[in-house]
Amino acid sequence: MPVISVPEVFNEEELYVDLHSMFGHSLYLKCEGFNFAGSIKLKAAAEMVEAAERDGVLGPDSILIESSSGNLGVALSMIAASKGYQFLCVTDSRCNLTTRRAMEALGSRVQIINEPDAKGGLLAARIDYVRALCAADDRYVWLNQYANPHNWKAHYRRTAPAIAQQFPDLDVLFVGAGTTGTLMGCARFFHEWHSSVRIVAVDSVGSVTFGGAPGRRMIPGLGTSVRPPILDESYVDDVVNVEEADTIRACHRLARGGFLFGGSTGTIVSGAVRWLAQHDESGQTAVAIAPDLGERYLDTVYQTNWLQDLYGEEVLNSAELTAASPTG
Ligand SMILES: Cc1ncc(COP(=O)(O)O)c(C=O)c1O
Questions:
Q1: Cα(203)–Cα(131) distance, rounded to whole angstroms?
Q2: Which among 80, 82, 223, 319 counts the fewest CB atoms within 10 Å?
Q3: Is 180 in the pocket of ligand 1 (CB under 6 A)?
Q4: Selection from 201, 204, 227 nearest residue 215 by Cα
Q5: Ligand 1 nearest atom to the CA of residue 182, by list position
Q6: Cβ atoms of 275 and 166 closer than 8 Å
Q7: Measured from the CA of 155, which atom of ligand 1 is nearest?
Q8: pLDDT tens-digit map of 132-145
Q9: What residues contact 43, with CB distance under 8 A and at least 6 apart?
Q10: Using a 6 Å cutoff on CB, does residue 159 contact ligand 1?
Q11: pLDDT tens string 75-108
């Protein structure tokens, strides 16, 4: 029986969903949403805060500040509350209302940026805001998830070894790319320890991370409008780009099977299934990582009006949703 007194120590690391019956491909989905922050970002947040404490950067008067699309913000809010730090989260208009309320309930301040930077979009505008506050007041401590090596080290130390332990014969790993912390931590680990594992990055269409053209992206978590500095593409074997309409369909198909996952999981599953269909290598062991769960997306990904306004009436074509195509 796990008994805890601080929230950040609990994290379910060993839960996988077998997607074969739903998507017709052998694919195990690692669930990262079962902790008190509700997402994979708990690990990056904990690692970055602990490193800042070790380095003497964080003190009792410090105010943590971070640009986050939401999940890192919730994780930092939780850790800040648990450890007694103040925290300001700088996010933008795409942040879910529930996520924002969760941060506020945990005692954090939330700043919403609505005006995109002409070149770097909303992300660049968020980062400019953080930089300006840090320059004006030295109590602010910016962990900078986009450049902080402890972001990817969290997954090098925890996420990837946990997968390797459960799947010693792993052939291919699908990882969504936001800051690329999860991707780079897993890619570096497997490169060093199990070099035969293929690492496939999954990104959204409209993201510039792997050199694509910038475009509209409404689902938070994956994709960037500024290339993440911690990305080293030499560790990545392949990249799949997914349209948001396909993300939505994958999310709803999972939900019809009783699994309510977050938006980025739909992107990752959709990209992984397409990649597996194009690389007909039956018998291979494939794992994908699901960064969070679906409750935070009930007003967006799972809300019919929002979907139809953004993606058109046909996005939830019921035939496609129910037509899982098991191959046996
Ligand atoms: C829901 C969700 N999916 C995916 C990611 C991407 O993870 P990473 O930043 O490690 O690339 C994030 C990051 O915030 C996220 O919140």
A1: 27
A2: 319
A3: yes
A4: 204
A5: 10
A6: no
A7: 10
A8: 999 999 999 999 99
A9: 11, 154, 155, 158, 159
A10: no
A11: 999 999 999 999 999 998 878 888 999 999 999 9
